[in-house]
Design brief:
By secondary structure, the chain is mainly alpha-helical. It contains 5 helices and no strands. Helix 2 crosses helix 4. The protein is globular, with a radius of gyration of 17 Å.
Length: 97
């Protein structure tokens, strides 16, 4: 069975018309980002120092972006055959934000 690549382009207005409710959230401050990083790293069973998490939390991003950084970092760490580290996460941040 052949697998074909399908590219889907969504018109912004068409997409928005399918959403019933739009919730706007305030941007996370550094303290909130620190908590999100800590919670998501714990959930992924990744241990980083408080100093490393503090440094990561300085980058302005939302919870979804933080989660994506951890997931992409895990993939990269697996490729490198290493544990997930702040240095690996920092390599993927530009691709997420």
């Amino acid at each position: 069975m052949e697998k074909e690549n399908l590219h889907l382009v969504i018109n912004g207005n068409t997409f928005k018309s399918r959403i019933s409710i739009n919730i706007n959230y305030k941007d996370l401050d550094q303290e909130s980002r620190f908590k999100v990083w800590t919670n998501l790293l714990n959930a992924s069973k990744t241990i980083l120092s408080e100093e490393d998490i503090q440094k990561l939390s300085q980058v302005e991003m939302n919870g979804r972006q933080i989660k994506n950084c951890i997931r992409m970092g895990q993939c990269l760490a697996k490729e490198y055959k290493k544990d997930l580290s702040r240095e690996i996460i920092e390599k993927v941040i530009p691709f997420v934000i």
